């Protein structure tokens, strides 16, 4: 632009010189030159502004907004109990032992002799004929303790990206960093399923000081001039309604937050029914996605594949969404669910003592070390289905309230890995290791393959209060309640995945329209083990604490989280 204007001015000066070259009126020439100098100065000013606007327009192709939150928790856990055992088919074990498959019990060099020498109680029970049928094989002495983490800080940074591609095409994305203060390891000790981060939950688990791509997708609206739209990419499937109220933000995701808070890659085909029915905000969506890739990048080689891709599909319907009333229906299923996901973890020393005794001996020399390992599922355990209905209303006096009901069904196929099958425990059978020197226990099948239905309820209210707003929430999950909400960033665990009761109270102080302080408290009363995972049979917490039931991973009886946070939107 600057070059073009300069050329125009130069040409004007050259022309003026030729026109007035023979004119004896020097004053006219001087006046004209003065006018041209004024025009040149004005054009320079315009040129600077044009260049600035061009740069601004180029940069504004992508709009960047975001939020920053720092949070302090005081976490307290009561009756944390570890009472590990596996279910063993001792009838099968006895038959193999009597046949001599494991060697002679009085031969200290035989696999059976080694096993009996290492576990005298097992030897006595075996010799007295007490080991019959499927029975628990206790792996360690039970322990129970209270755990207090008096202060636990986190920082979360989220950067929203938006770009208008064309009149009816847009792009949106979100990059997120979520970390503990003083911790960027990214790999946690596997003491619970929550500590094992994976593709769908990385954005909601503290990891390190790096940005993850939490969302990245495009929207193609009004296809062919119709109310049809298509969206493909890493989906906005976290912090959906009605969980936005406790977050003090607008609706964060498409599906019900009571059922889904889980990142996945997929596509949505939607239709704005409101254009036909006249009901404001009425939209029907068919959603498809993939939750697990079973072949590329896994741990299986040469086609010996034992897992399958997990595909998701279903409908999400906003029946009413008029800015005051919101009614939503959700129904979807997950086909070929595996007994875990690909990821990394720090292997617990306690489990090494049980399952890797040779390695455990070496670990004693480095007692403060954990070895890191990559894991993947061992097989397909069944299918899952979820459904729900939620209603929220925002009153004229700024009172907001909601109720939501959810249903889950797990259809197991009888398969099981080390930690169990679909809401069922694994039954282990004894066999020799590869060189025939040791008896090992390997999962053979699930102890129950029937369908299991769970349900959950979720309700809350938010009312205006001095300097801000006050809210109360309650949720309950039954024994087999298994929603996909593992990416919810509550440090004790997704409150909406809890098999038991959770109560929450909070007060939000509005500092300004883009900044607020939140004081909150959550109380968890767990009734059954395994909250948030479809793997393993839920056990009664009271029975685990009493020692009459078992759990491979530690279980929590009750817990509470008192926290304060400061959030800035920019």
Automatic annotation (TrEMBL):
List each coiled-coil range: 29-56
Q: Which UniProt keywords are given for this protein, alphabetically ordered? A: Coiled coil, Signal
> Which species is this UniProt entry from?
Shewanella sediminis (strain HAW-EB3)
**InterPro entries, per this entry?**
DUF3373
Would you tell me the protein name for this molecule?
DUF3373 domain-containing protein
Question: What residue stretch is flagged as signal peptide?
Answer: 1-21
């Amino acid at each position: 632009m600057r070059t073009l204007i300069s050329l125009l001015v130069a040409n004007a000066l050259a022309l003026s010189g030729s026109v007035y070259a023979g004119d004896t009126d020097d004053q006219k020439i001087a006046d004209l030159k003065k006018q041209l100098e004024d025009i040149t100065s004005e054009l320079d000013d315009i040129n600077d502004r044009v260049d600035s606007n061009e740069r601004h327009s180029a940069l504004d192709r992508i709009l960047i907004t975001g939020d920053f939150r720092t949070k302090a928790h005081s976490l307290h856990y009561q009756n944390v109990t570890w009472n590990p055992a596996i279910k063993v088919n001792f009838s099968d074990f006895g038959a193999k032992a009597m046949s001599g498959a494991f060697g002679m019990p009085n031969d200290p060099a035989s696999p059976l002799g080694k096993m009996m020498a290492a576990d005298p109680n097992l030897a006595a029970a075996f010799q007295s004929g007490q080991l019959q049928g499927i029975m628990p094989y206790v792996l360690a002495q039970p322990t129970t303790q209270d755990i207090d983490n008096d202060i636990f800080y986190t920082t979360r940074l989220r950067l929203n990206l938006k770009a208008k591609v064309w009149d009816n095409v847009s792009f949106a994305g979100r990059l997120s960093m979520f970390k503990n203060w003083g911790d960027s390891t990214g790999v946690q000790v596997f003491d619970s399923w929550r500590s094992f981060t994976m593709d769908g939950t990385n954005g909601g688990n503290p990891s390190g000081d790096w940005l993850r791509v939490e969302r990245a997708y495009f929207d193609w609206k009004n296809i062919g001039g119709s109310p049809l739209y298509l969206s493909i990419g890493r989906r906005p499937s976290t912090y959906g309604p009605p969980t936005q109220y406790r977050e003090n933000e607008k609706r964060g995701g498409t599906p019900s937050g009571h059922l889904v808070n889980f990142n996945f890659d997929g596509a949505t085909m939607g239709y704005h029914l409101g254009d036909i029915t006249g009901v404001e905000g009425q939209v029907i969506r068919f959603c498809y996605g993939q939750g697990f890739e079973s072949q590329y990048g896994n741990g299986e080689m040469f086609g010996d594949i034992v897992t399958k891709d997990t595909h998701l599909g279903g409908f999400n319907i906003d029946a009413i969404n008029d800015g005051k009333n919101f009614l939503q229906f959700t129904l979807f299923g997950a086909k070929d669910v595996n007994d875990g996901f690909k990821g990394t973890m720090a292997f617990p020393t306690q489990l090494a003592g049980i399952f890797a005794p040779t390695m455990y001996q070496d670990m004693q020399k480095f007692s403060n070390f954990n070895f890191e390992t990559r894991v993947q599922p061992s097989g397909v355990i069944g299918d899952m289905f979820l459904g729900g209905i939620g209603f929220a209303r925002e009153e004229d006096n700024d009172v907001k309230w909601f109720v939501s009901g959810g249903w889950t069904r797990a259809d197991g196929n009888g398969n099981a890995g080390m930690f169990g099958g679909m809401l069922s425990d694994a039954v282990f059978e004894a066999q020799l290791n590869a060189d025939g020197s040791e008896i090992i226990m390997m999962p053979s099948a699930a102890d129950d393959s029937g369908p299991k239905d769970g349900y959950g309820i979720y309700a809350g209210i938010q009312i205006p209060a001095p300097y801000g707003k006050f809210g109360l929430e309650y949720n309950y999950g039954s024994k087999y309640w298994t929603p996909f909400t593992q990416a919810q960033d509550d440090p004790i665990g997704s409150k909406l995945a809890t098999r038991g009761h959770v109560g929450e109270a909070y007060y939000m102080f509005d500092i300004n329209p883009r900044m607020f302080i939140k004081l909150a408290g959550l109380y968890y009363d767990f009734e059954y083990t395994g909250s948030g995972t479809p793997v393993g049979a839920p056990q009664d917490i009271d029975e685990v604490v009493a020692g009459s039931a078992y759990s491979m991973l530690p279980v929590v009886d009750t817990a509470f989280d008192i926290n304060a946070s400061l959030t800035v939107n920019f």
